[in-house]
Every structure is written in structure tokens, then in C-alpha cells.
Amino acid sequence: MEENTTKTAESELSEDVKIESDKKDRKDFDLHYIPRNFSRSMVQPIWAQIPRNAQSSVYTSEQIATFLKNPYSTFKELQGVSNYLLYTSPSYNNILDYLSNIITFDYTLYGIDTKHVTPTTLKNRILTSSEIVSKMNVKSTFPNMIKRTLTNGEAYFYNMGDKNNIIIEEIDSKLCQLAMIDDNNIWRYYINLSLIDSTSIAELPEEIRNAYSIWVENKKPKTKLETNGIVVPAYLYLVSNRGFSMFCHMRKIQHDYPYLAHMFEDLNDLENDKGYMNDYIRDSNVKIVHLEVPIDKESGLPLFSKDVIQAYHDSLKEFLPQSTCGITNPFKMQSITLDKSQSSAINLVEHSSEVVSDDSGVSKAIFNAETTNGLSYSTLADATKLYPLLGYFENFINLQIKDQKCKVRFLRMNHYNQTEMHEEARADLLSGGSRMMFVATSGLEIYDFLNINKTEQALDFDKMLEPKMNASQMNSEQAEDNGRPKVKPDKQSDSTVKVNETK
Fold this sequence. Notes:
Number of helices: 20
Number of strands: 12
Radius of gyration: 34 Å
Number of domains: 3
Shape: flat
Structural class: mainly alpha
Helix content: 40-55%
Distance between the termini: 67 Å
């Protein structure tokens, strides 16, 4: 089925286009690692790979507190804690998913050279640019990229796109470090060639594989001279502008630490408290069945032999259900309730959960909506924290459409205020407001809207779904067709007509 789909798509191309596309594929892709039909499908924009810095170690709160004393020096350890909590803490996962998906990634697209260009040229530029941006699948790809950035504090990506699709691969952060911010505001990075091994080189883009081969062929020199006169280690390769990085704290430093690192100690305590509560409740609910051995009152000795008592004891144990234990002795047993202690254990977990919620800054109503008071303000504050990261995506997209002399700007909009902003954009239309803003706030991408609009015109939707006029929009000639009573042709006053129409 997949082969038929690929052949059908290719058959729609002209022979010249297919030849050109094949050459481009051979230049920019490793065909052995990235099958052509998969690369064109856009099913998985980011390679689904298990992060190599995922840790299976169990961290203590004391260790985490030590790491947080100097987070930029212990960024590797904090990234390990982050990936550990990613697999063990539901609270951490909920917060990361919420923050990475709160932004809608709706955008406006406009030309930047409108004074010296004809309307036809500007229209073609917008059409081409909107198609390029549409191929990026920004609404599904970029939230994943934000989550990776928040998880590690830094993330390094590589654009493996061609004319037909855009695929973004994540490069293992252990191989990378920030190098510079170029003229296009792209945060470029170095690849540490000395850290590449035979198990990871097959996943890397061709550009990086070629740089590694040249470095090895030159017998791994120690230093090299850059064009700006700076001497750098030869094993650091500056990736082209196809590569770009994101730093959650937006500081120009070689490495960054996880965005929610300040919560790690409390998150770890919460998981420990939950484990303690489960063990405590399980232990507190163990039932005991007492088999009392009769004794002689005068001598104090059992009335049965040891073998007989053992036989009764073994028989009792054989038929006891789970979480029930049996004891056999001649003493009286007294039951002691532990309800108060159990309640204290539950309160301890509730306290830890509240501390985590306070540390995150995310309202508890997001995940457990006991009340919605102040929810809109809380979500607005949460989204505002992430709006600065939109600059990374704007710079990356604007580089792709730079030749078209167009720019993209993401709206500072989230899923919780989208309806409000759309209503404001609709109201602004009455006073000459932006039509593109109205389209963007509706949730449609510009390219999708243009194609939907053309489709509706071709199918003549306006004729099939003709809007009905209300009474205030009709005149007497239109009344018969639309059901409004016609004015009688007599000389009645306006007030008389109005009264008769209400009868």
C-alpha cells in the first residue's frame, strides 16, 4: 500500500521535476538511512529516537540540591535528573506537556519589500512562502521541539528538507555546544567530532558525516585556524545554517540546564512520599488471624504437643487470603487502629503535591478543576513565559523564506485565549482591521486558507449556501421571496404599516 501511494505521488510530477528531485535527494539525504517514500510522507517530522542521556539511576534529594548550587556547571547531571523524572514522575510529564502545547503556533505572513514590488509579484511571493511554511507542519512539529528544549534546557536540530518536504532531525545534545548567533539570528552550534562513534554516525546528516571523515583523514589534528583568526579545537565543526539550537533560558553560554530544574528536588520528594504512602497503607491494612493455644492454668504449659500445634498453624496459613497473616501463641491479642497515622501520611503527599504546584507556577485547576477562578489569568501567565521561545522558530522559518522577501510572525496566542482574540479580530474588520489576522486567529494556516478559499470559489459555495437576509436588510421588492409581509399599496402612514406588520 505504501509503495502504491509513493508511485501515485511521483506519477503526478513531470519527468524533469523527478530527475531534479532525485539529484536533490542524493545530495541532501542518506538514502540508506532515510527511505525516499518516508522522507516525503511527513509522517514523523522529528526522528523518534531514545535520548542517550536518559538515566536509569535513582537520585536522592541531597544529590539534586548539590547539582542546583551551580546549574551551569552541572548541566549534564541535571539533564540526567530531568530524563529520570520524565520516565518516573506523572506530575513532571503533565507540566511539560501542558507548557509545550499551550501555544497555538498560529502566524501571520507578510512581505518585507512592498514599496518596490508589483501586486502580482508580492502575491506570488506570499503564495510560495505560505507553501514552504505549510510543509513544516509547525503545529505538530514545533510543540515537540519545545518539549525537548524544556526537558534538557537545550536542544540541537538540523533541517534535512528539500523542495518537497521539511524534516527536522534532533542531534544528540552530548555532541553539541553553542558556537555563535549569526546574522540571521540563528543560534548555530559546534559538533564535537571526537565524541562521534560508529553507533551514532549513521544517524547524523551527511554534512556532519563528511566533516567527521575529513577530520579522521587528517589524522585528527588538535587545533585549527578559523577565518576570523581565532584558533579553536579541530574536533569542533561549525554546522551550517541548516543547524540551529534552542536554549530555554536564552543565555549565550555553551550549555543550558533544564527549564524546570528548580522543581526537581520537590518532584523527587513527591515521588518518594507517594511510595512511602503506598507502603504505609499496605502495611497498615495487613490483617492478623490469631490462633490461641490453650494452656494449663496451674503449670502454664500448652495442652497440646508441639507437632499438633504446628499442624494447626500450617493448616491456618494454607487457607489465608493475601494481605492476611496468621500467628499461633498462648497470649491474648489486642487490636490497635492506625487511621490517624494513615491520614497523616496522606496529608504528607497532599502537602508535597501542593509544593510542586506552587513551584511550577501552573494553576492546580489546569489538571484538577475543582474551581476555575482565575484560570484565564493563570494560563495567560503560563503562555507568556514561553512566548520568548517563539523567536527561535520565527528566525528559523524566516531563513527558509528569505529569498521570497517575506517574514512570519507568530501570534502571542494560546489555546485558552484564542476565541477571545478571534472575536477581537472579527470586530476590527468593521473598522478596516487585518483580514490575515482574522484568518490566523481562526486556527487556519495561511496556505490552507488560500486553498480552501479557491476550492469554495470553484465549487460555488456562495450559491449553494446563500445566506438568508434578515428583516433589517430587506426592502419591499425582496419581501415576497424571503417571506416578509409585503406592504399593501394603500396610503398608510409609516406607523400604521409597522402596527400591521406585527399582527
